[in-house]
Design a protein that fits this description.
Blueprint (H helix, E strand, L loop, with lengths): L5 H22 L1 E6 L7 H16 L4 E6 L8 H10 L4 E5 H4 L18 H9 L1 H12 L4 E7 L4 E5 L13 E3 L4 H9 L3 E3 L7 H6 L5 E4 L1 H6 L2 H4 L2 E8 L3 E6 H5 L3 H36 L2 E3 L3 H9 L13 H6 L3 H11 L3
Bound molecules: beta-D-glucopyranuronic acid.
The site of beta-D-glucopyranuronic acid has 11 residues, from β3.
Length: 344
């Protein structure tokens, strides 16, 4: 056996320690996540929980920095395109703008598709929702769907009261970057407007560029839009889930075992977000009501009129209905979703 003098042993130990720390440092990867919502919003909290879990489970090999408030990309389409190019690793976005890149995504956000939140969650957690997450990657979009988050139901809010479809006539309403959502406003008699980021809606209303927008209680309140457009009508035209996306190009650079950890951690944050969502939804509604906004509840006939506008032939769609134009290709998925609803 070779006997090392103490000094030589120490030198070897120091060299080994140095090599180790260099190896650890160079193996750590820092990735960015883009989020349009502010600190404290349910999806931002879920992004941060995702980052925490990934760092813990990869033992520090992967660190995710969450950029909230649209600091990186104010428009979700910008974040989506950056992920396709491999310039951004993750983004939490609404499923709405994703439809421009994965058209099948419209099938899970058709207007008046779900009876309630439980119906939507049974679909998203079941085969249809899980297949749709896989479709994001399989479609060749360059994106990977990691998990769904709750975003409640969307409602119109405007600078004058809307109590019926007739009141929508001539209103310029900001929608997300999704052709179906533009047409949804158009078949109701208004004009759908895109190209305005969610953090710019408030000023677009105060400047008169638009007469209103549409969103859930938390976004309406958190973005301050309720102060600019104090009429909120509970028409609940659509439930659009949120989706946590990754860049396929960025994931392909990582160790496959770490990619599995990332996918698992994302799934684990879904329930976390849903709890935060339920709390925020109630709190936001209270703030808006306390502020004195006019909350219009539609009677059954008026509600049915909004619903009917989605399936009736429309002149603005050349005689087609919105469901025909955007749903025909995915009729099997839509029928399967409706069938799940029979239990609710
Ligand atoms: C909110 C979504 C957010 C969207 C926003 C919008 O949480 O991802 O960017 O709607 O309307 O409900 O743009």
């Amino acid at each position: 056996m070779e006997v090392f003098p103490m000094k030589k042993l120490l030198t070897l130990a120091v060299a080994a320690a140095l090599t180790m720390s260099v190896a650890v440092a160079s193996a750590a990867t820092t990735l960015q996540l883009s989020e349009v919502h502010a600190e404290g919003y349910p999806t931002t909290l879920a992004d941060q929980e995702f980052a925490r879990l990934v760092e813990e489970r990869t033992e520090g090999r992967i660190k995710i920095e969450v950029y909230s408030g649209g600091q990186l990309y104010g428009e979700e389409t910008g974040a989506i395109e950056a992920m396709q190019l491999g310039d951004l690793a993750f983004s939490r976005v609404s499923a709405s703008p994703v439809s421009s890149y994965v058209p099948a995504m419209n099938a899970i956000q058709m207007p008046y598709l779900y009876k309630n939140a439980d119906h939507m969650w049974a679909v998203l957690d079941g085969e249809i929702g899980q297949n749709m997450l896989e479709e994001v990657e399989a479609s060749g979009s360059g994106l990977v769907g990691l998990c769904w988050y709750d975003a409640g139901a969307r409602n119109f809010y405007t600078t004058k009261q809307v109590s019926s479809v007739a009141d929508m006539a001539g209103l310029k309403i900001r929608v997300q970057n999704n052709a179906m959502m533009v047409d949804m406003v158009n078949v109701l008699g208004g004009t759908g407007v895109t190209g305005i980021g969610p953090n710019e809606v408030y000023s677009a209303i105060t400047q008169g560029t638009i007469d209103g927008a549409e969103n859930n209680w938390p976004t309406y309140q958190n973005m301050g839009d309720y102060e600019a457009a104090p009429y909120f009508v509970l028409d609940e035209h659509t439930r659009v889930p949120e989706i946590l996306l990754a860049s396929a190009a960025v994931l392909s650079e990582l160790d496959p075992a770490d990619v599995e950890i990332i996918k698992q951690c994302a799934k684990e944050t879904q329930e976390f977000e849903k709890e935060k969502w339920a709390e925020k939804e109630a709190e936001a509604e209270q703030i808006v009501r306390d502020h004195g906004c006019t909350i219009t509840e539609l009677d059954a006939d008026a509600y049915a009129e909004f619903q009917a506008a989605m399936t009736e032939p429309s002149d603005v769609l050349g005689g087609q209905s919105l469901y025909e134009k955007y749903g025909a290709e995915y009729q099997d998925i839509i029928d399967a979703i409706t069938a799940v609803g029979e239990d609710y």
